[in-house]
């Protein structure tokens, strides 16, 4: 890797990502959930944009042994879905079935970076593993913060900062853009109490008000997973 940049919201992602490795981040909660589901036994995840697409695809899977339907709208499990968007729901899946998955911002982010050479999925849980994977690649890196409907989500920026901190530890010569420096500085300032920081963010507060504070605390835990999911040909897998 030569340089690292950060897009703070999807609207700042360039159209042409040819030759770049992009890392999609939606800590609260889509990418934390994707990681939990793959760790929990899902062979792969198929992200789709709409509830209708999800239902149609799930019906097709039904003809071939089935899948789970997971995701959220307004942070809640849509009617008829097997699971919502809580990482804790996926930690031990009853069966090792694929998951058709749709969320408000996370799945939109995956579509936005479709022109990249390589697409990786990050949350706080796999920050150091993602950093190691990036160091092994020769391309420039764009860390993509999904944000919330066009607004910056602070927890996504902190996750970008965590990945940059883990890269810097191993390779201090990597070139950082100003965006990357801002993310790194924010992470360093918040690192001593990530849980409290996450609970104060807009999403952290919204989830807590719905009784989902444990999801926020779960998503704040860093660097314990060695899985690095990638997204290619419509599938997320490890
Ligand atoms: C999203 O993709 O918009 C989020 O992950 C929302 C949520 O917390 O469920």
Give your account of this protein's structure.
The protein has 238 residues and is of the alpha/beta class. The protein has a single domain (3-237), classed as putative 2-phosphosulfolactate phosphatase (Alpha-Beta Complex), CATH 3.90.1560. It is 38% helix and 16% strand. It has 9 helices and 10 strands. It has helices at residues 30-39, 51-62, 106-112, 127-135, 154-170, 178-190, 194-200, 202-209, 213-220; strands at residues 3-7, 21-25, 45-47, 68-71, 99-102, 118-122, 141-145, 175-176, 230-232, 235-237. The strands form 3 sheets. It has a 5-stranded parallel β-sheet with strand order 6-2-7-1-8, sandwiched between helices. It has a 3-stranded parallel β-sheet with strand order 3-5-4, with helices on both faces. Strand 9 and strand 10 (235-237) form a beta hairpin. Helix 5 packs across helix 6 and helix 8 packs antiparallel against helix 9 (213-220). The longest helix has 17 residues, at 154-170. The protein is globular. The two termini are 21 Å apart. The model has no long low-confidence stretch (mean pLDDT 96). Bound molecules: D-malate (MLT). The site of D-malate (MLT) has 12 residues, from loops.
Protein traits:
single chain, 238 residues, alpha/beta, putative 2-phosphosulfolactate phosphatase, five-stranded parallel β-sheet, three-stranded parallel β-sheet, 10 strands, globular, binds D-malate
Could you give the order of the helices and strands? EEHEHEEHEHEHEHHHHEE
Give the overall shape. Answer: globular
**CATH homologous superfamily, by name?**
ComB-like
Helix residue percentage: 25-40%
Task: Kindly report how far apart the N and C termini lie.
Answer: 21 Å
Overall structural class, as computed from helix and strand content, comes to alpha/beta
Strand order of the largest sheet: 6-2-7-1-8
- Average pLDDT rating: 96
Subunit arrangement of the protein: single chain
Q: How many discrete domains?
A: 1
Q: Beta-sheet strand percentage?
A: 15-25%
Count of helix runs: 9
The CATH class is identified as Alpha Beta
Unreliable segments of 5+ consecutive residues: none
Annotated CATH topology? putative 2-phosphosulfolactate phosphatase
**What integer value in Å does the Rg equal?**
17 Å
> What is the annotated CATH architecture?
Alpha-Beta Complex
């Amino acid at each position: 890797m030569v340089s690292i940049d950060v897009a703070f919201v999807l609207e700042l992602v360039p159209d042409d990502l040819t030759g770049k490795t992009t890392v999609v981040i939606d800590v609260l909660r889509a990418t934390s959930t994707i990681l939990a589901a793959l760790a929990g036994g899902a062979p792969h995840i198929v992200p789709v944009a709409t509830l209708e697409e999800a239902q149609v695809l799930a019906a097709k899977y039904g003809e071939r042994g089935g899948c789970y339907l997971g995701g959220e709208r307004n942070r809640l499990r849509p009617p008829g879905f097997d699971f919502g968007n809580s990482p804790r729901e996926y930690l031990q899946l009853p069966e090792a079935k694929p998951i058709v998955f749709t969320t408000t911002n996370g799945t939109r982010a995956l579509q936005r970076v479709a022109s990249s050479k390589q697409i990786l999925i990050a949350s706080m849980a796999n920050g150091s593993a993602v950093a190691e994977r990036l160091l092994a690649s020769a391309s420039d890196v764009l860390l993509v913060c999904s944000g919330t409907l066009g607004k910056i989500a602070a927890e996504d920026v902190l996750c970008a900062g965590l990945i940059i901190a883990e890269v810097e530890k191993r390779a201090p010569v990597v070139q950082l853009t100003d965006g990357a420096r801002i993310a790194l500085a924010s992470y360093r300032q918040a690192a001593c109490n990530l849980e409290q920081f996450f609970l104060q963010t807009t999403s952290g507060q919204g989830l807590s008000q719905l009784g989902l504070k444990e999801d926020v605390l779960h998503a704040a835990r860093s660097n314990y997973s060695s899985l690095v999911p990638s997204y290619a040909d419509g599938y997320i897998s490890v």
